[in-house]
Amino acid sequence: MGNVDYMYPSANVESSRRVAIPPPQPFITTLKNSLKETFFPDDPLRQFKNQPASRKLVLGIQYVFPIFEWAPRYTLDFLKSDLISGITIASLAIPQGISYAKLANLPPILGLYSSFIPPLVYAMMGSSRDLAVGTVAVASLLTASMLGAEVNATENPTLYLHLAFTATFFAGVFQALLGLLRLGFIVDFLSHATIVGFMAGAATVVCLQQLKGILGLEHFTKGTDIVSVMRSVFSQTHEWRWESGVLGCCFLFFLLITRYFSQKKPKFFWISAMAPLTSVILGSVLVYLTHAEKHGVQVIGELKKGLNPTSFGDLVFVSPYLSTAFKTGVITGIIALAEGIAVGRSFSMFKNYHIDGNKEMIAFGMMNIAGSCTSCYLTTGPFSRSAVNYNAGCKTAVSNIVMAIAVMFTLLFLTPLFHYTPLVVLSAIIIAAMLGLIKYEEAIHLWKVDKFDFVVCMSAYIGVVFGSVEIGLVLAVALSIMRVLLFVARPKTFMLGNVPDSLAYRSMEQYTNASNIPGILILEIDAPIYFANSNYLRERIARWIDEEEDRVKAAGESSLQYVILNMAAVGNIDTSGIGMLDEVKKIIDRRGLKLVLANPGSEVMKKMHKSELIEKIGREWIHLTVGEAVGACNFMLHTTKSDLLKEKSGTWDKV
Asked: 307: closest CA among 181, 408, 457, 441?
């Protein structure tokens, strides 16, 4: 059958190769190690070891403010690159900032405010060299949707504005706490499939809502689902403005053409980066010369000149709106973190440097706390702006400082020039940016690789488009968590067989040429054993035994004698798991079989030793490898056969 003859080791070799029980450790040491592995897997304090107090102080300042770590090495060549990058992303940040503020139902000037203070804070505290800070469409849409459900931005603009500042404050506090408490793994519950579907759904909703600006409609639905939007659009056909529609389509075509050209010719990245600002300038000039605002083309109007006013006194910490601001802040904060950290890590891999996720959370949190006190709303690291920053050749976070200075100059001197900027141009800018978030290739890839991930992705998309942003997010996260629970509660178990001409034992489902070992059933448990899966594993192991006995009986092979459990993948076990193993042993004993364990880990051995399960199973039936366990079982099978033959031979001799 392709098996290699196994030489059972001598008693001396066996005793030297027994599975070791780890030495006992004090509870405090065990707890300390567990907490360290949970919250400090990257060991951030390693650099402080064996350092004098003065050096520790310097390292501490550099850890909190990375700018002090790389600033002494900054060169003139870096400044040239960062200057070009900063000016380039400023040309994108100004029109996008105004557009996204309108999307959030906030005054357009807030988009510029939010591109001034937060980038300066991030430049001092952030660890990414390529991330360009600013407002994003999805967070803006969430803000409008969640706050708009409680307060009408048109009827009560002051309260709505103050709630936006308060939500930003809570988002910043939440983000900073996640980083300080090393709880960044919470963001990991937003899986890649969830983010792809959610972003695509949000982008679709944002594009549909821009039909208001494209068609020049004054009254529009507050709902974000596709049914409400379509009903609102087609119930007002008599109010469609052809002038606005033609202007919007022309600028959208221009933006898409420039982006397509830049994608085909990456060295001309600046063409697509400058296209939004060019559209704003051309649109403003066109409206000014033709007086289009008198013919149905809506314009921004007056923008307040000057730097960010303080807004700390505007934060709302009283009922009944406190819960709304808190909920909005937490949800938008998580989405902003997931996007910002994912973008930062993507570009850090391209340049082969490391960013600390927890430090990024603290940086995002502090810039949003500072922003909430200086008339800004939620900011993060948008992909489009960061991609332009990367392609422009940025070297450090100084590009964010350059962008902030450019925005400051705009706030001080250039805001009157945006008076005649048509809203339809802002709608075209948003649509062009959002189309890049609808990644259908990713959805096709998910379908090919993992059907469940595809279901999660489409659930998020359908939930956002046909329900609401909150429904889509909750649905996708719930499905992702359900999958995690299924992985825990229903772990994989599979039968192992011997790979021909080797001592390797692998899954017979994966290796179809692997062969059974007569009289032995080898099973592998592919997960830790906890209370959530112990009952399932007991029933599944019993079923495996039933199926193997039926197969053996049908094939006329040697009866089953031994059940080997390969414990290599069982990294941990709790008391319910120990109880399950004890019950499995009793079930196997009642069937006249023998339980054998192979390669249990240190945690498993430690807990089996403390619960005295090792004595019940028998130390001689716990082996270092599956191969050794099979050899021991084969040895016992052959020994038993030899003894039976000798007994029969002796009986015939007497006769």
From this structure: 408
pTM for the model stands at 0.78
Which residue has better confidence, 495 or 184?
495
Express each pLDDT in 245-260 by its tens digit.
Answer: 888 889 889 989 988 8
- Do 208 and 227 form a contact (C-beta atoms < 8 A)? no
459 membership: H or E segment, kind and range:
helix 451-466
Tokens of 73: 């090495």
Torsion-angle region of residue 26: left (phi > 0), alpha (psi -120 to 50) or beta? beta
Residues with Cβ within 8 Å of 185's Cβ and at least 6 positions away in sequence, in order, are none
The rounded percent of the chain whose pLDDT value lies above 70 is 94
Q: How far is CA 395 from CA 340, 345, 402, 653, in A?
A: 18, 16, 12, 93
CA-closest candidate to residue 94, choices 378, 502, 536, 411: 411
Helices within 410-450 (DSSP H only): 423-435, 440-449
Q: What is the DSSP string of 86-129?
A: HHHHHHHHHHHHHHHHHHTTS-THHHHHTTTHHHHHHHHH---S
Bond before 320 cis per omega within 30 degrees: yes
Amino acid at residue number 437: L
| Residue 610: other Cβ atoms inside 10 A | 13
Decide if pLDDT at 377 tops 90: yes
Structure tokens belonging to residue 94: 């100004």
